[in-house]
Amino acid sequence: MILVALLAAPLAGAVVLLVLLARRPSSGETAQVVPWYGVVVSGVTLALALAAAAVFDYGRAGRMQLQVDREWIPGLDLRFHLGVDGISLPLVVLTALLTFLCFLYLVRHRPEQGRFPELAFTLLVLEVGMIGTFLALDLLLFFVFFEIVLIPMYFVIAVWGGPERRAAAVKFILYTLLGSAVLLLGLLLIWSHAGTLDMVRLTERHGEGIPRAAQIIAFLAVGAGFAVKAPMWPLHTWLPAAHTEAPTVGSVLLAGVLLKMGTYGFARIALPVLPEGAEVLAPWLGALGVTGIVYGSLACLAQRDLKRLIAYSSVGHMGFVLLGLATLTPAGMNAALFGNIAHGLITGLLFFVVGSLKDRYHTASLASLPSGLLGTLPYLTSLLTFACVASLGLPGLAGFWGEMLALLAAFDPASTLSRPLYLTYMAVGGIGTVLTAAYFLRTLALITHGPPSRVAAAAEPEGHAVLTGPGPEDSAAAADLAAREAQAAGPDATAREHPAVPDVTAYELAAWTPLVVLILALGLWPKALLAVTDPAVRALLGAP
Amino acid sequence: MIQSIDYAAIAPSLILALMAGLVLLLDAFLPRTRTLLTAVTFAGVLASLVAVILQATAGRTLSTFCVPPDRRHPAPACSYVVDDLTLVFAAVVLTTALVIVLLSATQFTRPGAIPVGEWYFLLLCTLAGAVTLPASRDLIMLVVALELVSLPIFAMAALKRYDAKGSEAALKLFLVSVISTAVMLFGVSLLYGLTGSVHLDRIAAGLTAPVPVPGAAPGGVLAVGVVLVIAGFAFKVAAVPFHFWAGDVYQGAPLPVAALLSVISKAAGFAGLILVLTIALAGQTAFWSPVVAVLSALTMTAGNLLALRQRDPVRLLAWSSVAQSGYILAPLGVQGENAVGAATAYLAIYAAMNIGAFAVVMLVPGSGDLDDHRGLAFRRPAAALSLAFFLVCLAGLPPGLAGLFAKVVVFREIVDGGGAWLAVVMAVNTVIGLYYYLAWMARLFVPTPATPPVGDPTLTDGRLAAARPAAVAVAMALALSVAFSLAPQLILSVVG
Fold it and tell me: What is the ipTM, given to two decimal places?
């Protein structure tokens, strides 16, 4: 029942908020109360998630636990079947944690567009969908939760996003929707051959009863659906736009949780339920994953916008996850799941920090952000450095293990797969890690290091060549323009007129510290997570 | 020969027909009776619905107007049969009708001077036809019932006097309908000529008989007959290539008529199509199901593409309902076991959500542009949230689970029946559909400048009172859609 409560808490919170909103449209008073309301509701959810983690029997992490199994729609064979095992538990906790941290962050750092109560409502609905996806053990129920996140995310981007938000939101939803439509077809194909929608039973059968051809087609369909979400190269093109335009919390949840829904789908449904299809298509999955790694890194090297850069780095990191999955071995799957969690923590932190930078300087462009930030904003910049270094896979931090284990797994893929091919993947992936290091170090060199630029502290609007040192006429024109823009922008611009940009605030620190601690903890003691996922992975793959 | 009539079987249609007469009389003899007539009509539809429910709870198949067995046919053939399919269609039609009566009550408060008595008379006649049609089991009864559905609708479309668009809509509808009837009658006569019978089950028997009827025509005649019959019904459900009338007619006619066309008239068309295809032509599935599949794919694609470009909410709903017709046809396009069940379930759920969308459009007066709905969430949160829910249902996304499950039912049938290409076409179409529904929905939540836009004058008490029936209509449709979202087995268990 704790799992039902886990879904009911944010849902009830959202409904109550909706009723309050409908009664009294957002006045100043509600806007004051709501932030803490969101913190409380998501805090309760987090507490429930932690309680679930506490009562979870780690000795039997390979089995589904805390199950709820009720009939919902007999006409569709749909059962309300929830449960957690070693694979889903970490993701559920991650989701609850990130949502809670987002609300904590929002207490002080609201998007400029206002309408905060609506944002809180949207995020709570989003949380229901995200947690539900990881809990569902019925294919259709999984699909329903998978879809629930779409509309809230669309609104988060379309209402609270940046200047290009409409286009980004539409792109996001069309891409993912096309993916889900195909996914639904795949799931129904599985259902029509296997005669059941129950994921536990389907997993136990390991594809028995589904003919080989049907498995391949179903894997293609299901895989395409998850690949859009993951995102896998070349289906990733919605991601940079969505990430760049989304508000900070949107980016954090998008990168931290939504992308995981794709790879989780691979691990939970595509690989165990359709083993023969997986065998045939795994090399392609690996190839696309590796392409994503290299493509993502190269794209990052060419980016001028920090948020876009991190978005592309996600493509690369998810490439490692896909490579791990494509090995079809327990080691690879563990690596993938570890990479998933690590990426959620690290990229979540990265988007938080970059979002804060953007709030302070009103730009995320590498050219317009001042250099030498380490001198002006030491704490914020240290956190940025920490997150970047974690993301590039420094040993001792969480990012390292996901990548290293995935490459290691590619060294020894499942016996049915071609070893030379995977060795090539491993080599290419290795080059990818180097490129990853290259672009993160370039980024850090551009903004954290170097002489602190005084002009930049005044936070000029984008488009002025701060780094090249403007000539006298230029700076006069720039000052004029800045003044005019400040007038046009109204009260928002008052912050810009003060040269002193504040360093990390208490709320930011509160929201980020747990992430930092977890990144360190997982980096130093990866076994904590691997011990939870391993039995479940072995059960899924039917490995000893 | 004297036929005995089972009045319990025909009670729902009979009640409607009697009420139609009563309404006309009341209108003639009692002046100023708008509210009374609305109440009487509402009560009549409700009584008919109760009769349907009673028939359903009785739990046995009623049949009447039967002819006794003869030399060639060992079993009696009945023209009027009340089985599960009939009951589901009748219930869908009558429940929708309740909403339409409420919408009509609001319509009368708008400029356009529609004569109330005639309106309700025509409405009840249409309903009588729509309830009779799914029970019809012979070709003549089918055609008569279908005409009973269609004829009053032209008149209703034209009742808005001195309105050029209304007259144009009525004329278009009339021409299209007459042509479709002619086409269908020709097909029907061919089927009769081939088998020597008008009863659907006897036609089926005649077509599959090992020994052909003496002087049997070649197979080509059968094909022509089948295609003509399908074409006739395709006009009624606005399937491609007979869909051109939908946009103009929906837009020109009074809104309740558009709602009527999009749900009741369409349900009647589908009922007829399903009956002819699955009873009379049950043996020819291999021939007609590919035709229906192509028709379905074209219909959904054309409807969605046309809907993409619309700026007028009613036109958008018109084309989107064409697209939805395609989804309803889809299960019939594969030879699945439960194709009829899937199509019926989709139709029932579609009826609830589509009528809801129409009701909200009725409730929120506008100048015929989607931008009128901009920022509706801030002016009228309840209406906006209801509309958003209906749209999201039509798109088939959570939280509109009703629409999602309806699509799942259809998809499941197609995938199960092996119609892979149709499934892919439908998947792509779902995404296109989502785009315009979502674009509309997003408008509701866009903040507007302080001044209210043209076409939405400040609401006075009088206007609020006038809109009350429409508000009740929205609430009814919302309750149904939510019920279908949470418990789709309500309908799924009925259609098996």
Answer: 0.84
User: How far is A344 from A330, CA to CA, in rounded Å?
Assistant: 21
Closest by Cβ to A25, choosing from B378, B423, B489 = B378
Q: HEC profile for B285-346?
A: HHHHHHHHHHHHHHHHHHHHHHHHCCCCHHHHHHHHHHHHHHHHHHHHHCCCCCHHHHHHHH
Whole-prediction pTM: 0.86
Other beta carbons within 10 angstroms of residue A167's beta carbon come to: 14
CB within 8 Å of chain B, chain A residues 98-127: 115, 118, 125
Six token digits for residue B404: 């999602």
pLDDT in tens, A231-243: 888 888 888 888 8
Cα B340 to Cα A43, B132, B326, B346: the distances in Å are 48, 19, 14, 10
- Residues in contact with B121: Cβ distance below 8 Å, sequence separation at least 6, in sequence order: B20, B23, B24, B27, B152
B427: nearest CB among A145, A147, A185:
A185
Of B381, B385, B408, the CB nearest to A140: B408
Residues A84, A5: contact at Cβ < 8 Å?
Answer: no
Cβ neighbourhood burial of A134 (10 Å; 0-12, 13-18, 19+):
buried
Supply the angle between the helices A275-301 and A419-447 in degrees, to the nearest 10: 30
Cβ–Cβ contact B108 with A under 8 A: no
B196: left (phi over 0), alpha (psi -120 to 50) or beta: left
Closest-CA residue of A relative to B336 is A192
Q: Give the number of other Cβ atoms within 10 Å of residue B369's Cβ.
A: 14
CB B134 within 8 A of CB B154: no
Residue B478 has, within 13 A of its CA and on its CB side, a CA count of: 16
Q: A543: buried, middle or exposed (CB in 10 Å: 19+, 13-18, 0-12)?
A: middle
Kindly report the three-state secondary structure assignment for every residue of A512-538: HHHHHHHHHHHHHCCHHHHHHHHHHHH
For residues B458 and B408, the answer to whether their CB atoms sit within 8 Å is no
Mapped onto helix, strand or coil, the DSSP state of residue A183 is helix
pLDDT digits (tens, 9 = 90+) for A282-299: 999 999 999 999 998 999
Q: Do B397 and A147 touch (CB under 8 A)?
A: yes
Q: Is the CB of residue B198 less than 8 Å from the CB of residue B292? A: no
**How far from each other are the two terminal CA atoms of chain A, in whole angstroms?**
31
Structure tokens at B171: 């004329």
